[in-house]
């Protein structure tokens, strides 16, 4: 029971969920977070504040249940699975050569799509872990949107000013290696990470399975941008969990015509923003399915 528009964005999300499920009484009962991990050759250029070994260490932390994503998932009753498909021992250094071959890119897309189709939940959320993947996402976004690099390059996991300047220079060098713009497959092949490519495929697969796709922050949004170029109907299934503090996220959200649910100055990744947004989605669906109307509740309407 409410005046029209009184619940703001929650109403728009409820309507989107209803369209995805093709019903006026939608239900969101389950969410699975799939967390993709991958090593990045660009990490050799010191574009991150942390060493590449952190990727494997954090995967062990996820498996042990000690990461922020684990805590948020447990708190919200979300199943978490960690995926490292080992398509290769990390990507190549895209400052000097393509990150992956066309065959590897296609393998990652198809593997991700198969995981998405088998999601076995009505909401599919995706997270990532990979030292260097903010640089990777920045170049993919640059090639897909044509936006200047200085509007996209951010501090990632916490670079200082000197580190940020170095990162900007390395990414400018890498960007000059190819013409702009690129299509989604070429951008992912040249600059993507295996976790990002698999995530793009998983989003397409989850939508095919009829799930709402809950998008996390900057890197997940870049994966979504690439995926929607390859499969435009996917956009109708995407709900954006939060606006990251990472510098380029606003550009990517604008390219997707997306309004995220939360803005909490987060930039951790791991799917943490999506996990925090999950209760909002559940409430939106329940509101549409369970809330009384003015008429059924015996409440007078406007005069």
Describe this structure in words.
- The protein is of the alpha/beta class and 303 residues long.
- The protein has 12 helices and 5 strands.
- Strands 2-1-3-4-5 form a 5-stranded parallel sheet, sandwiched between helices.
- Helix 5 (133-145) runs antiparallel to helix 7 (184-191) and helix 9 packs parallel to helix 10.
- 50% of the residues are buried.
- It catalyses: 5,6-dimethylbenzimidazole + nicotinate beta-D-ribonucleotide = alpha-ribazole 5'-phosphate + nicotinate + H(+).
- GO terms for molecular function: nicotinate-nucleotide-dimethylbenzimidazole phosphoribosyltransferase activity.
- Pathway: Nucleoside biosynthesis; alpha-ribazole biosynthesis; alpha-ribazole from 5,6-dimethylbenzimidazole: step 1/2.
- Its EC number is 2.4.2.21.
Strand residues, percent: 5-15%
The second-level CATH architecture is 3-Layer(aba) Sandwich
* The CATH top-level class label: Alpha Beta
CATH topology title: Rossmann fold
**Number of E strands:** 5
Organism: Geodia barretti
Pfam families: DBI_PRT
Pathway: Nucleoside biosynthesis; alpha-ribazole biosynthesis; alpha-ribazole from 5,6-dimethylbenzimidazole: step 1/2
GO molecular function: nicotinate-nucleotide-dimethylbenzimidazole phosphoribosyltransferase activity
